[in-house]
Amino acid sequence: MSKELDKFQRPSRYVGGEVNAVIKSENDVDLHVALAFPDVYEIGMSHLGLKILYGLINQRPEIWAERVMAPWLDLEDDLRRNGQTLVSLESGRRLADFDLIGFSLQYELSFTNVLNMLDLAGLPLLAAERGEDAPLVIGGGPCACNPEPVADFFDFFFIGDAEAGFLEVLDQIRAWKRNGGSKKDLLLSLAGRPGVYVPSFFQPVYGQDGRLAEIRPLVPGYDRVKRAVISDLDAAYFPERQVVPFTKPIHDRIALEISRGCTRGCRFCQAGFIYRPVRERSPQTILNLARETLAAMGHDEVSFLSLSAGDYICLQPLMSAFMDAHSPRRVALSLPSLRVKALNPAMMKEIKRVRKTGFTLAPEAGTQRLRDVINKDLTEDDLMYVAREAFALGWRLIKLYFMVGLPSETDEDVIAIADLARRVQAGSRSKVNVSFATFVPKANTPFQWEAMLNLEQMHQRMRLLRDNLQRPGLKPKWNDAEASLLEGVLSRGDRRLGRVLQILRSKGARFDAWSEALNLNHWLEAMAEAGLTTDEYLRARSREEVLPWSHLGVGVEQDYFWAEREKALQAQKTADCREHACTKCGVCDFKEIKPRLYDPEKDAPVPAAGNPPEGDRVRFWVNYTKEGPARFLSHLETIDVFTRAVRRAGLDFYMSQGFHPQPRIAFASPLSVGIESRDEYAEIQLVGPPEAAEVERLLRAQMPGGFYVKAVLLRPEGSPKLSSAGARYLVRADGPLFEPDLAERFALEDEVMVEKKSKKGLRRLDLKPLVGEIRVLTPDEIEIILLSGEVGSVRPLKAVEVISGLSPEKIETASVVKLETLLDNIQASCPQN
């Protein structure tokens, strides 16, 4: 598979070998854990939870956690066509050969991908049908708080904080593996541990009306599951050496979790309830983690991650200390989850010391009445004040986030969203992006009993909103209504939906969170075949009804949720317990489990010295190779490899000037994906660097596998810029394809026309001026020099195809190695292979 990765979208998703990826000796490992993320690589590598688990488990030398992501549609089709199965990124181990497969369940529409990955692994979907030798399949993440739609496919779930006992679970599995016994024996021994939910030990019972009547425990003493909670986030594990992706993840920055939990009590927000209580990390610990993580990863942006970063009590001194330490090296700070009332001009000024990273303001609703219903502590004056200050400080884009379909919403509330957005943008030349999504009632929230809009109602309200957002400077964006509908079905679903998911697997459903892959008709057909309707899951519930997740405890009591629902219907607000009295939600025992906060006066951090780099600008040429899996990286991904390696090496880039400073780095020429090279060149401009030999040593130590720094050359000021006049390539075919007189026949031609794709479509150009030399070495090897002309350049395989007269099918399996870069005007004195 690896030989042909360049024919797939983003082949760098599949190569592995990234900086900080963990490789272990099989002789040291007695438990193999696959951390499976049911979406593509760039989404999986954006999730901090996956990174925490990866580092936490791999601390133990006897346990090896490897990553497995869902392949995109093109690679999946290829795997199925060739009878291949899913393998891990680290060792290439087949997914079916792991001891344990742990799925991260972040959103409901990934459920079809879970089944698809099990199928691609060659494993039976149902846990009851997997034999004793099959891997254990477990799940975790926010969807584990109501995993009933997928319960039949899992051996057990871990609900809550992995730092609170998951390693002990793995130790118990190791002991079971060593001592022998059945899977049922293991599950019985795990049942009762905080966080462990074994769905086969509970039986849902349905009444004559087809609705859930009872959840019957099957194991004495195991009738309710208690969420696992880490009491002290400051003492919890955090990975400093995180894997550095080759391709850009969705969130291409370092995420530092500054706190966990939220007590604002927004009544639609599942995360705000299932992650209680609030536990802050100390400012000094955060600052230390930022220093170590930046050194190990080489990024230029850090995000302070929290459900509500603005509520972190020491945020102002922490931001100042962070910027003092890191702004001299042009490391930016972003705060992606700010409450509007928490944002102030002082914070904005700290953020813009490097660059104005974006932020999203979330009023959620357009009227004060509806904001009171959802317990959103925000007024229009608060929003207008923050927007005015941001515009005054130079921001030219603000993102607003709203929901439609909230309980008790009217058309007037929907139109008010557009009115509010217009007022935010009024009098400014800046732009406002207005994002809106359909409200989805979630399990374990005060709105878990509420009805959800059907598809027709969603479209009606979105049309109403879009019609009222027709104004220059306002850009509406909205979530896919069909995806929201299915999310609503699954979020409060029961085990009957497992049959629906099985039917969907047979129809080929996967990537339902992606609009290009979602097929609503398949879902509706599967629901009908299982004897179910979407309306049954979108409807309102009564207080007396048995909820599918009622045997799973997240800490907050169901009576509290109902009381909050009743207050919502009267538009009554509940105060934050950090600032007022305890609201008696039931989470805290006030011994171990309690809020943990820090004092901005006593706990202010002490930053490390962050003096700006000193010295003159110095130019270096870096001569390097790009071979093996590295050949599947694109040019832009190669640029990221270099910029992060330079930062990890402790070297300082000379930056461009202007609004968004960039590192000064240039390459002789882009290298096509799939081509190996023994002779590439990059120019980097540094400030006050050591001697060239030391730069070479430092960079060589920081390059990932497949890259090797051959030499670093000092280039004096005034010397020519780095540019390429062409390159010498070696093309190897799978068989004897090249005739010995090929070069002579080409020389006799007056012109040899080739078609080349461009942004403007196909164009024809003469290949003759672009070919410097042709040498047929053997019947299956040819060496060719291709030049860069005024009309551009041609890829080696295309040139050889045209010159030899071979069909594209015959030449496409050939491999290409770039032997030498021909530098323009000047030849560097670097060693050649």
Q: Count of helical segments?
A: 24
Total strand count, please? 29
Low-pLDDT runs of 5+ residues are 828-833
**How does the overall form come out from the CA principal axes?**
globular
Radius of gyration computed on alpha carbons = 29 Å
Overall pLDDT: 92
Which descriptors apply to this entry?
833 residues; alpha/beta; eight-stranded mixed sheet; six-stranded mixed sheet; 29 strands; globular; disordered C terminus
Description:
- By secondary structure, the chain is an alpha/beta fold.
- The protein is 28% helix and 20% strand.
- It contains 24 helices and 29 strands.
- Helix 8 (283-297) packs across helix 20 (635-648).
- The longest helix is centred in the middle third of the chain and has 15 residues, at 283-297.
- It is globular and about 90 Å long.
Q: What's the quick description here?
A:
The chain has 833 residues and is α/β, with parallel strands linked by helices.
Q: Which secondary structure elements does this structure contain, and how are they paired or packed?
A:
Elements (H helix, E strand, L loop, with lengths): L30 E7 L3 H4 L3 H11 L4 E7 L3 H9 L18 E5 L6 H10 L15 E5 L15 E3 L7 H14 L3 H8 L5 E2 L4 E5 L5 E6 L7 E2 L27 E4 L1 E2 L9 H5 L4 E2 L2 H15 L3 E5 L9 H12 L5 E3 L10 H7 L8 E5 L3 H6 L6 H13 L4 E8 L6 H15 L5 E8 L16 H13 L6 E5 L2 H11 L5 H10 L13 H10 L4 H5 L13 E2 L4 H12 L47 E10 L8 H14 L16 E3 L8 E12 L4 H11 L4 E9 L8 E9 L9 H7 L4 E6 L2 E6 L4 E8 L2 E7 L8 H9 L3 H4 L3 E9 L10
Parallel strand pairs: 1-2, 1-3, 3-4, 4-5, 9-19, 10-13, 13-14, 15-16, 16-17, 17-18, 22-29
Antiparallel strand pairs: 5-6, 7-8, 11-12, 20-22, 20-23, 21-22, 24-28, 24-29, 25-26, 27-28
Helix pairs in contact: 4-16, 8-9, 8-20, 9-10, 12-13, 13-14, 16-17
